[in-house]
Specification:
The chain is mainly α. It is built from 15 helices and no strands. Helix 6 crosses helix 7 and helix 6 crosses helix 14. The longest helix has 50 residues. It is globular.
Length: 363
């Protein structure tokens, strides 16, 4: 049982990191947009965002485990009234499609910047790979994340260490603390939206009560570690970071081709997680067949021509602001409920203790 909990926690953590570490993260574009303007203070923002995402992940998976939830719709009904549950339900899957399209856009930008291939090539390649992995269903997604996510993490650390050896300081102090906190909240908000749609469909992986906590600790710790490494690289090479669509790729220099593979893996893991949640939505709502995955990929190829930078700079923050209330509500509601249950349990134990002192039986 213990080994099973550890194994499930590892797989779920890889899936969580695979969903969060997409093209925007691995390329350094997200960290550049949300935290680099705050310079050294941005490290606190990165920590706060990682902590919020870990708490959110724990709140969602713990509720799924305790309530034996099997779908996103069931989870939303559990935390909100039917009217708001429907609104949140639609909002989550619209954003899942946006994320999916962003990964196609990132793939197009990646192959264009490195190999000067047509933008269309990278988008089509992403679509083909997503369809192949998806047709293995949840096992294909878990396997992809279990293998690719550790490789991504090792790749990020490798590029980080290599960059530090040739770094030059570029520190400046500017930005307000209040704005930094808001930036962290928005960053955590839009990254948290896809967590519900992915993990509410994985109730079978959350049968052990220890799994949600172990998964959250592993996920939050690793996310902060790799975020810190990438952010420090961006600080050291600030000029390059602000002038390129895929900044880390430009900074990598000798490891450029290696990091191209790392970034492509990051896009794949995020894309397949988004496709999985979209197909579950279509299956549960419209009873569609798996063949619809190909049509979703086709639509994403055309939408990807909006451009990767535009999606990260403008579309992500919009959904982040909208998802802010959902992030705060889910974390607050879960921990308020947990505190309430603990208080109720303490009162019951106190009542039993007092009754024993008085020689009474509680039936």
């Amino acid at each position: 049982m213990k080994n099973n909990a550890i194994k499930c926690s590892f797989l779920l953590s890889c899936t969580f990191l695979g969903a969060v570490i997409g093209a925007g993260f691995a390329s350094g574009k997200e960290l550049t947009e949300f935290f680099l303007p705050f310079d050294k203070k941005g490290v606190f923002g990165v920590f706060l965002a990682s902590l919020l995402l870990a708490a959110y992940f724990y709140a969602v998976t713990k509720r799924v485990s305790c309530e034996n939830i099997k779908s996103t719709h069931d989870y939303l009904i559990c935390i909100a009234n039917p009217f708001f549950a429907k609104i949140i339900y639609i909002f989550i899957y619209v954003f899942a499609f946006v994320i999916f399209c962003a990964m196609f856009a990132g793939s197009g930008a990646l192959f264009k910047q490195i190999f000067n291939f047509p933008y269309f090539f990278g988008s089509c390649l992403m679509g083909i790979i997503c369809c192949i992995i998806f047709y293995r269903n949840i096992y294909g997604i878990l396997s992809a994340n279990a293998y690719l996510t550790p490789l991504m993490i090792l790749g990020i650390f490798y590029v980080g260490i290599a960059a530090f050896f040739r770094s030059r300081a570029a520190f400046f102090e500017f930005g307000k603390n209040g704005a930094l906190i808001c930036s962290s909240l928005v960053y955590a908000s839009y990254n948290s939206i896809s967590i519900i749609s992915v993990f509410c469909e994985m109730g079978s992986m959350l049968k052990d009560k220890k799994t949600p906590f172990l998964s959250a600790v592993i996920s939050g710790s690793v996310l902060f570690a790799i975020s810190l490494v990438l952010y420090l690289i961006l600080l050291f090479f600030k000029d390059e970071a602000q002038n390129y669509e895929l900044p880390i790729l430009q900074i990598a220099e000798n490891a450029k081709f290696f990091y191209t593979a790392v970034m492509f893996f990051a896009m794949i893991t995020t894309a397949v997680s988004s496709l999985f949640s979209l197909m579950k939505f279509l299956e549960n709502t419209f009873s569609v067949r798996k063949n619809s995955a190909a049509y979703i990929c086709l639509a994403a190829i055309f939408c990807s021509f909006i451009g990767f930078s535009k999606m990260v700079s403008f579309v992500y923050p919009i959904f982040g602001c909208l998802g802010f209330f959902l992030l705060i509500y889910i974390i607050g509601e879960f921990f308020a409920l947990a505190i309430g249950e603990k208080y109720k349990s303490l009162k019951i134990r106190e009542k039993i203790k007092n009754s024993k002192k008085n020689g009474n039986l509680i039936r």
